[in-house]
Design goal:
Leucine Aminopeptidase, subunit E, domain 1; Aminopeptidase; six-stranded mixed beta sheet; 33% helix
Length: 503
């Protein structure tokens, strides 16, 4: 991962291979760092702007060679667009794009500075957005690349140059950004891994490794232990696979024991064929990502521990494959869940809600302050909201508001769908308590209505990340592949609950 350093000084004095200048569109005069560098280079920046070769449109990048006029060999200009339309997403995207350009031309070290007198907004969030964008945009998943591996390019370091008065703040926010992005990379790596290299057992091993961190403990229930406590919905999904299921319990203790924990539940389907109700073969390879919710929960606990947040968190990840073996769950079967409620199986490809049902009822034993589950749950949510937005449903308005605000700050947007009582009618079974699908109509909502039955009336929110968890195309600061969503949202939410909400 990109190294971030902070030092005092002037940007034009930086001896890095390139200095990065973010600029707004439509400005007649250069200011602050841009003006100083323009003066030192004999008007190179003014010239490229006057010629309209660079207009500072959002994410536009242009590289100028200084020919010895500065200690840095290059000046990389990046556009922030119209200043009236500027937001943190523009900052993240701009720095992702300029870092990708520098990587492409084999720059290994760069420096930048943030002109707080020109780029208005919360200083802490501007710093963090800059560094989140820079680091996020450089992500590559390459452990299995062997051919031409020596030709892989990487930017090694980004230095943030700052004035003495801002040094302490910039240093602190840079450290926070590093922690968050390490957790994002961790999450993306897990989601990107092929299913043969990220089985339930390997996922459990990754969770145990997190327990080496301060104040984290990990316990993993095996098949026999799950059977003993009645997790038959999870075991039903696992029945067709040769891979042993695991129920992962991570606990982070950042506050006194008597404080009620927040419980995060993450879907951990390490591969989903659909079971007997098998999926089409096209794009089935992407079903290696069906544990993205579980990965995000693990990453959030990792970040909370590294940030030393003062609160208690429990992470629950039911982990299994969904395979069409000879002992696999069948349509028409009935399972008695951990809660004691019975479930009629209509479609074995509606398996995520089955494993979450057992995890959610297990969460109730903690008498939690709130429960949040995260899952790549329904294609219906993608149809409703597209590939970029998380569907949110829940029972507690304050909790939903907190999560929506955290999503706005993090740039990981959520949109609330209704969860009215009438939707529960669609999941009533004639021969059991519930059935595991309510049909095509309102599919994302009826899936959440099913989950609600297992939450024990505690404040609860469900996040359906089926759309944004994995991208089939490059986005400004999210390269094609695993996004890590909603890791940064969860960290922002947890930070707010710990009393360190971003300003």
């Amino acid at each position: 991962m990109l190294k971030i350093s902070v030092r005092k000084g002037k940007l034009y004095e930086a001896k890095n291979e390139a200095v990065i200048l973010p600029l707004f569109e439509g400005r007649e005069k250069l200011v602050l760092n841009a003006r100083e560098i323009d003066k030192k280079t004999g008007g190179l920046i003014s010239e490229i702007i006057a010629s309209r070769d660079f207009e500072a449109k959002p994410f536009q990048v242009s590289v100028i060679y200084t020919r010895g006029l500065l200690p840095a060999k290059r000046v990389a200009l990046v556009g922030l667009g119209n200043p009236e339309e500027f937001d943190l997403e523009k900052m993240r995207g701009a720095y992702a794009m300029v870092m990708q350009k520098l990587r492409a031309i084999n720059v290994r070290q760069a420096a930048t500075a943030i002109d707080f007198n020109d780029i208005h907004g919360s200083k802490d969030m501007l710093i963090r957005a800059t560094l989140e964008g820079a680091v996020s945009g450089l992500y590559q998943y390459l452990p299995f690349r062997t051919v031409d591996r020596q030709n892989i390019k990487e930017v090694k370091e980004l230095a943030v140059i700052t004035q003495s008065g801002d040094y302490t703040l910039v240093k602190a926010e840079a450290q926070k950004a590093r922690v968050i992005m390490e957790a994002v990379y961790f999450t993306r790596d897990i989601v990107s891994a092929p299913a043969n290299e990220m089985t339930p057992s390997i996922l459990a091993r990754k969770a145990r490794e997190l327990a080496r961190r301060r104040n984290i403990t990990c316990k993993v229930l095996d098949k026999a232990q799950m059977k003993k406590i009645g997790m038959n919905a999870l075991l039903g999904v696992a029945a067709g696979s040769c891979e042993a299921p695991k129920f992962i319990i991570l606990e982070y203790k950042g506050k006194r024991k008597s404080e009620k924990p927040l419980v995060l539940v993450g879907k951990g389907l390490t591969f989903d064929t659909g079971g007997i109700s098998i999926k089409p073969s096209e794009k089935m390879d992407e079903m290696k990502t069906d544990m993205a919710g579980g990965a995000a929960v693990m990453g959030a606990i990792m970040a909370a521990a590294d940030l030393r947040l003062e609160l208690n968190i429990v992470g629950l990840i039911p982990a299994t494959e969904n395979m069409p073996g000879g002992s696999a769950l069948k349509p028409g079967d009935i399972l008695k869940s951990h809660s004691g409620k019975t479930i009629e199986i209509i479609n074995t490809d509606a398996e995520g809600r089955l494993i979450l049902a057992d995890a959610l009822s297990f969460a109730v034993r903690y008498k939690p302050a709130a429960i949040i589950d995260v899952a790549t749950l329904t294609g219906a949510c993608v149809i409703a909201l597209g590939d970029d937005v998380t569907g949110m449903l829940g029972t507690d308005n304050n909790l939903k508001r907190e999560i929506a605000e955290a999503g706005q700050i993090a740039g990981e947007l959520v949109w609330e769908l209704p969860l009215w009582d009438m939707y529960s009618e669609q999941i009533k079974s004639d021969i059991a308590d519930y059935k595991n699908t309510g049909g095509r109509a309102a599919g994302a909502i009826t899936a959440a209505a099913f989950l609600e039955k297992f939450t024990g009336n505690y404040p609860w929110v469900h996040l359906d990340i089926a759309g944004p968890a994995f991208s089939t195309k490059d986005k400004p600061y999210i390269p094609k592949g695993a996004s890590g969503i909603p890791l940064r949202l969860l960290v922002e939410f947890l930070s707010g609950r710990a009393g360190v909400k971003s300003k």
